[in-house]
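The data are quoted verbatim here:
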Amino acid sequence: MNELNFPILSWLIFLPIIGGLIGLAVPRSNPGALRGLSISLALINLFLSLTMLVRFDASKPGPQFVEQLNWLPTFSIQYSLGIDGISLTMIALTTVLTVISLLVSFTAQNSHTWEMTVFTLFLSGAVIGTFAARDLILFFVFWEFMLVPMYILVVTAGGPNRSSAAMKFFIYTAVGSLLMLVSILSLHFISASLLGRPTFDIDTLRKAHLPYGVQQWLFAGFALAFAIKVPVFPLHTWLPSLYAEAPTPVLILATMLVKVGAYGFIRFAIPLFPEAAVAYAPVLAGLGVVGIIYGSLAAYTQRDMIGVLAYSSIAHLGFITLGIFAGNERALQGAVVQMFNHGISAGMLFALAVMIRQRTGSYELSSLGGLASRWPAMAGFTTLAIFSAAGLPGLNSFVGEFLLLSGAFQTRPVEAIIATIGIILGAMYLLRMFGRIMHGQIGNGRSFPMGDIRLIEAVTLVPMAALVIAIGLYPRPLLNLIEPATRAIVSTAIERPVASLAQSVNHGE
C-alpha cells in the first residue's frame, strides 16, 4: 500500500501508454480528437505528479508510494515501484515536458502531428517507468520500451537522413542494453548464492556484498549501457545525428532519455557495485570533463540551432557525469539539480527553435538575424533561456553548476578547474547563437508573415520561464527534496567503499 492508498505510480506510467494505444485507433482525419485526448491525459499526469510532490515526505528514509506485486514469481520478477526525492524530481519534470512537447507539436504545423502525438505518449510512460522501477527486470523492460517510440518517431517524422540516424541510435542503444542484460542476469545468479534466494529487487541486491572482482565486471556492463545513453564521450556520436533528424517538438521530451542514463548511474550502478564505482570514478569523471570541452568547442562550430543545442547537451551532460563521480554529496546534489535544470533550459530552447523555424522556415544561423527588433517577446524568452543554459547567476543552472563544481573541487580539483573553462566556452557559443539569431540584418532581407508570441506559445514558455527564475532565486524546495536521497547514496555507496578500499590498500602495504 502507498501513502495515498492509490496506485499513483502505475497510473502515471500506464495512463499515457493507454492513451497512446487509443490514439492509434483515432483516424488521422480527426486530429482535434487526438489532441484533446493526449493533452487531457498529459494534464492528468501532471496533476498526479504534483500530488506526489505535495504528499511526499522528504524526511522519511527509503522509497515512498511503493507498489509491489509478484509479477513472474517463477523467475523471481516483481512488479515493484517506488520513488525517492531524486526519482520524484525526474518524474515531475517528465510530466511537465510531456505537456509542453504536445503543445509545441500542435503549433508546429507539421504533417506528422499524429505520429508525434501518439508516440510522445508512449515515450512519456516508458520514461516514467524507468524512474519508478525498483526491480531490475522491470527497469530493463521500460528501458527497452523507450527505444521503440523514439525509433518510430525518427523514422516516420524525421528529416531527410532519418533512417541512418534512427539506425545509429538503435545500434548504440541495443549494444548497451545487451551488455546490461547480461550483467543483470549474472548479478541475479551470483547474488542468489550469497543471499540464499534469487531476486531482482535492488534494495535486496545491495545487501549481497559482491566480491570486488565480480563488481568490476558487472559495473562495466551497467556503466557502458548508461554511458551510451547519457551519452559520455566518446560514445556520443548518435546524439547529434538523432537530434538533427528527429522532429524538434519531440526533442523537448526526448531530453529525458539522456537523463535516464545519468539516473541509472545514481540508482543502480553506484549502489549495487560501490567499490567498483569508486575505482572507475576517476575515468568516468575524466571522460565527463572531456565531453564538456569537446561538446563546447563543437557547439561553437555549428551552423544551425539544433546542432548547437545537440553539442551543448553533450557539454552539459559532461558536467552531470563529473558531478555523479566526484565522490561527495554536494557534487551529487549539483548533478541532480542540473539534470532537472537541463530539462527545463534545453526544453525551452527547443520550443523556441520550433517557433522560430515556423516563422522563418529555417534553423540555419546564416538565414536568421534581426529577430529581436521584429519579435521582442520571443527575443525576451530566448534571452532568458540562453542565460539559463549559460549559468547566469540568479537563474536555475547557476545553482546546479555552483554546487557541482564546488563539490568536485574538493575531491577532483584538476577536473573541476578544466570544467570551469567549459562554462566560459558555453557562454561563448550560446551568445554567438543568440547574436546571429536576434541581431544584424532582419532575416537577410526576407519578410515573415507570422507575428510575435501567440497565446498557446506563451502557455508553453511561461511555465518553463517561471521555473528558471524560481529555482535560481529560491532553490531550497528542490534541494530539500533531493538531499536525503543523495546523502544516503553518498554515505552507503561512496564513503564506505572509499574507506574499505583504503583499508585494503594499507593492509596490502
